[in-house]
Predict the structure of Metal-dependent hydrolase.
Amino acid sequence: MVHLNEKQDALYLEDTYLTAIDTSVTAAGRDETGGAWVALRRNLFHPQGGGQPADRGRLGEHEVVPVRDPATGLVVLRAGEGAAEGAGAGLDGLAEGDLVHARIDAGLRLLHAALHTAGHLVEAAARAEGWTLAGNNHFPGQARVELTPPGAEAAARLTDAGERERAADRLRAFVVAAVADDLPVTAHHDDEGRRVVRIGDVHAAPCGGTHVRSLADLLEVTISGVKLKKGRVRVSYSAAHRPPR
Ligand SMILES: [Zn+2]
């Protein structure tokens, strides 16, 4: 069991495919604007972070959005955009110890996990080019990995469109081979307590996101192109999740 916080378990780190659960309220309160928030003892919801967008879902009948509270480290749920008007929109009736039913938007979770895992895979392919990770974004419609070439000479070569296209083709071949091999995606904690995510033996990185079980869960990992922007290589991609097995 992962304890990010002694008051809350992070179930989303343990099982990407768990989409509903009965649990209890571990903390509840109001923010500075008067809006009610609730934290679950066993938390299903991935908050936005690490380049991955937040889950959406419901607590009972109430539409909620998770946010990590920087003060406590707890993932707290607030009323979602589609919720009825009014402070807390129904969450204000909940108190510590109350039993609740929580569920996430499963389709969105799978899409986020697919895009996130594909991001690791694209990063692995790009590292094989000698590039170093500089940033990533796993949001639907804008997914990309940004990397730094190993030096001025390597960067200069990439100003050539043909060179970039050949690099993109090598990345695509790497991705296709890894998906065909159905490499497993696993997570473990290292000696320092960091969660490290691995794809077979081609990639390992500290990460707090949600991932698919193995690369055969990915459908249509598409690298749309390699660009050079302000000295950084930008690899744009998209991915989807195969219908759940
Ligand atoms: Zn990850």
Remarks:
- Residues 190 and 196 are 7 Å apart (CA to CA).
- The first strand starts at residue 3 and ends at 5.
- The chain has four helices and 16 strands.
